[in-house]
Specification:
By secondary structure, the chain is an alpha/beta fold. 42% of the residues lie in helices and 19% in strands. It contains 10 helices and 14 strands. The strands form 4 sheets. It has a 6-stranded parallel beta sheet with strand order 3-2-1-4-5-6, with helices on both faces. Strands 7-10-11 form a 3-stranded antiparallel beta sheet. β5, α5 and β6 form a beta-alpha-beta unit. α1 packs across α9. It starts with a strand and ends with a helix. The protein binds ligand NAX.
């Protein structure tokens, strides 16, 4: 039997965590033969909730779950961690701007980064989900310099999966037969799903989405706004923000990162920019990536049209502004 991996989940009393834990405990994230120990971190006022969630996890009688620690102490939470999933943070309240949210989260990410730096495994893999996800990841990278920069990633997989679903509905094909959309840049309200390179499995090979859509204009209009507004639509009907789909995307992201992407398939991840596609090096920017043996690489050489270029540049600009603002709060 494999040694268990220690998985930290912050914001562990929250709603995404609640949907995510059974997925982790059943092996959907790290594989059906990989035992896990969960470290659940939240803040003091959520201490009771944490305990309740732990009781439910115990009642799940999961064969792969070898231990559960609930804590409100960030150092205890980070000890020996192999995988850290950062769902915790200051929530966006009504009327809060992005800058307000950044300034509220800087202190939290700084402290958690230092704890990971000092107490986690040196090759710890970190996924930041909490918003503003790209900039929280950047702060974390800054304050955990000994964790390799390629190990700190922000989530754009929910947006990616939403885009796959929009294409599947429009083309009337199964979502499992659609692949290779791209979320470029920032997980923000200006996010840009790009279907210029997306493919559909038609049984005897693949056809491009561009070839299959009847209305050419749709990909640059409604398709984009449908993906951008999906979160709001869900809040309106569920009266809570997306949780099941966010947990599933988190699980997909970690599985693909650690176990690898299928041949010929890429996914979107907010990774440390090396300057690919002319994006400023050092930003946490979402690119199309393939993964093998726990390492990602950016898909190179895709042809970028003028419309996509403008969107990519605008998102780069947005992230540079977030970065500059965050650094001005720090120093
Ligand atoms: P919840 O409000 O249900 O849970 C957040 C939890 O974090 C709460 O239990 C809270 O007590 C805890 N928390 C606050 N400060 C903390 C700290 N310093 N240390 C540890 N825990 C702390 O939110 P939920 O719906 O679960 O969403 C979690 C985060 O994911 C939010 O920031 C949300 O904006 C973000 N999202 C990001 C997405 C993405 O695609 N990147 C999509 C889904 C989601 O909206």
């Amino acid at each position: 039997e494999k040694d268990p991996l220690i998985v930290l989940v912050t914001g562990a009393a929250g709603q995404i965590a609640y949907a995510l834990f059974p997925m982790i405990a059943k092996g959907a994230m790290l594989g059906p033969d990989q035992p896990v120990i969960l470290h659940m971190l939240d803040i003091e006022p959520a201490g009771d909730i944490l305990k309740g969630v732990k009781l439910e996890l115990m009642d799940g009688a999961f064969p792969l779950l070898k231990g559960v620690i609930t804590t409100t102490d960030v150092i205890e939470a980070c000890k020996g961690v192999d995988i850290a999933i950062m769902l915790g943070g200051f929530p966006r309240r009504k009327g809060m701007s992005n800058k307000d949210l950044i300034s509220k989260n800087i202190g939290i990410y700084k402290a958690q980064a230092s704890a990971l730096e000092q107490h986690a495994d040196t090759n710890c893999k970190v996924l930041v989900v909490a918003n503003p996800a790209n900039t929280n990841a950047l702060i974390l990278k800054e304050y955990a310099p000994s964790i390799p920069e390629e190990n700190i990633i922000s989530l754009t997989r929910l947006d990616h999966n939403r885009a796959l679903n929009q294409l599947s509905e429009n083309l009337n094909v199964h979502v499992g037969d659609v692949k290779n959309v791209i979320m470029w840049g920032n997980h923000s309200s200006n996010q840009y799903p790009d279907a210029n390179h997306a493919m559909v499995n038609i049984g005897v090979g693949h056809k491009s989405v561009k070839e299959l859509v009847t209305d050419d204009n749709w990909l640059n209009t409604e398709f984009i706004t449908n993906v951008q507004r999906r979160g709001e639509v869900i809040i309106k009907s569920r009266r809570l923000s997306s949780a099941l789909s966010a947990a599933s995307a988190t699980c997909d992201h970690m599985r693909d990162w650690i176990l690898g992407t299928p041949k010929g398939t890429w996914v979107s991840m907010g990774v440390y920019s090396d300057g690919s596609y002319g994006i400023q090096p050092g930003l946490i920017y979402s690119f199309p990536v393939t993964c093998e043996k726990g390492e990602w690489s950016i898909v190179q050489g895709l042809k970028i049209d003028k419309f996509a270029r403008e969107k990519m540049d605008a998102l780069e600009k947005e992230l540079i502004e977030e970065k500059n603002f965050a650094y001005s709060c720090l120093h």
